[in-house]
Design goal:
The protein is 42% helix and 13% strand. The protein has helices spanning 22-27, 29-35, 44-61, 73-76, 86-95, 107-116, 139-148, 162-166, 177-183, 195-202, 224-231, 247-252, 259-269, 280-289, 310-319, 328-344, and strands spanning 63-68, 82-84, 100-104, 121-123, 154-157, 170-172, 188-192, 208-211, 238-241, 255-256, 273-277, 294-296. The strands form 3 sheets. A 4-stranded parallel beta sheet has the order 2-1-3-4, sandwiched between helices. Strands 6-5-7-8 form a 4-stranded parallel beta sheet, with helices on both faces. It has a 4-stranded parallel beta sheet with strand order 10-9-11-12, with helices on both faces.
Length: 350
Amino acid sequence: MSLIPESSSQPPGGSSLLSYTPEIAQRTAALYERVSRVIPELEWPLHAPYIARIAELKKQRNAVILAHNYQTPEIFYGVADLTGDSLALAQRAAATDADIIVLCGVHFMAETAKILNPEKTVLIPDLEAGCSLAASITGADVRLLRQRYPGVPVVTYVNTSAEVKAESDVCCTSANAVEVVESLGVPRVIFLPDEYLGKYVAGKTQVELILWHGHCEVHERFTAEDVRAYRHGQPNLVVLAHPECPPEVLAEADFVGSTAGMVHYVAGRRPNRVVMVTECSMSDNVAVEFPDIEFVRPCNLCPYMKRITLPGVLRALETLEHKVEVPAEVGLRARQAVERMLAVGRGPGR
């Protein structure tokens, strides 16, 4: 079966078309067996030639591919070398000895990888892979908040741009946010930018939080009515929710935690039936690891995460586009905020 890739993914110099050959079918057979529950058999001939070619180019380029939990299974399991949530990707980006990092996630994650690896080439396959939450605040906004609340330290969620991190005292993830806030030893902090995560953290600490009104467009769409609908007729359903969801959604959940926290819960408790109230691809990726568990899939997709595709990853490795750059002075200050976070909490992140 011959496949004509998108024009943006054509190799430089006009190489032959990608084809699903018997040799590629054999090379990728074990991988497909692993992901067959979440990728239809009809789709595999479309993915396998890209997966095989990307594997070759990674070796040639001494490249490593990092993929967030919200990436689709053909990326998460097909080509990624390192996977996880925001904190895990930050930690692994800091530890890699590869020359090139391809970040399969959104732009702020690629910036974080560059901040921690200023000497390496960091690529993001699509420059439009942004984040509604990160876009809700700027470095100028943080400076104005500091003027309004002089002397109050700023804790910033990692889901922010490099310039916002640079204006902050310390970063956090959804998993270590309470620990980070309390580590400062102060009665009051500015917590940015996710309002719902901030409200969740405020309920777990005596520290007063000054909040920003930023939201994730995926998580804010969930409602308490959605959760009750998932439970209808399924009395044994276990509901796991991300703290970026509205408070009334969290109140309906059996467990609230980061994406990695959800995985740990499933691994430890082994519920028969579970719903993860977060980005849709998360359930697909976790289902691969736990074939004995039934996953009810709430399909709220992140349009930015879904801009990352196998043709885009291949193009990035072929052309070394798009390079992520962070100004040196911004990167240095942002790195300090990220490293303070890594020093405080070593647990799973977003």
